[in-house]
Q: What sequence folds into this?
């Protein structure tokens, strides 16, 4: 039994988070994201919102401090208010000083093609797609 891990982090995701090395990227996406055409490894977080999963993952790993684009959110297409709500929620889970970079939709898809894994959530609202870049724990 493991303690202190949010129960929404299912075993396959925990394994992927452990397998990932520094510089590897994880996509947390909504149910409409073309995950299978972007990533070789796709997991499904059934019954889970992207925002909840983001908050559950962040205490478990470090962001890549050598890359300013270590948290990338898909840019909006006319729904800036919704994107702002997502970004505010994500920002609360980030370490002090970390900033979200907004990336144009098709550029985001291209970046997602290089991700280690995509996790499809049950999120159906716009603007929740995010890429996290894993770093190393500072000793």
A:
């Amino acid at each position: 039994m493991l303690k202190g891990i949010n129960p929404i982090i299912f075993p396959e995701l925990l394994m992927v988070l452990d397998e990932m090395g520094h510089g590897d990227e994880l996509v947390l996406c909504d149910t409409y994201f073309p995950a299978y055409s972007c990533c070789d490894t796709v997991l499904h977080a059934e019954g889970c919102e992207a925002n909840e999963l983001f908050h559950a993952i962040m205490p478990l790993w470090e962001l890549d401090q050598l890359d300013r684009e270590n948290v990338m959110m898909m840019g909006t297409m006319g729904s800036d208010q919704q994107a702002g709500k997502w970004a505010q929620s994500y920002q609360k889970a980030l370490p002090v000083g970390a900033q979200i970079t907004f990336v144009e939709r098709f550029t985001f898809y291209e970046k997602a093609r290089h991700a280690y894994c995509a996790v499809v959530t049950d999120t159906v609202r716009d603007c929740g797609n995010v890429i996290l870049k894993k770093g190393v724990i500072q000793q």
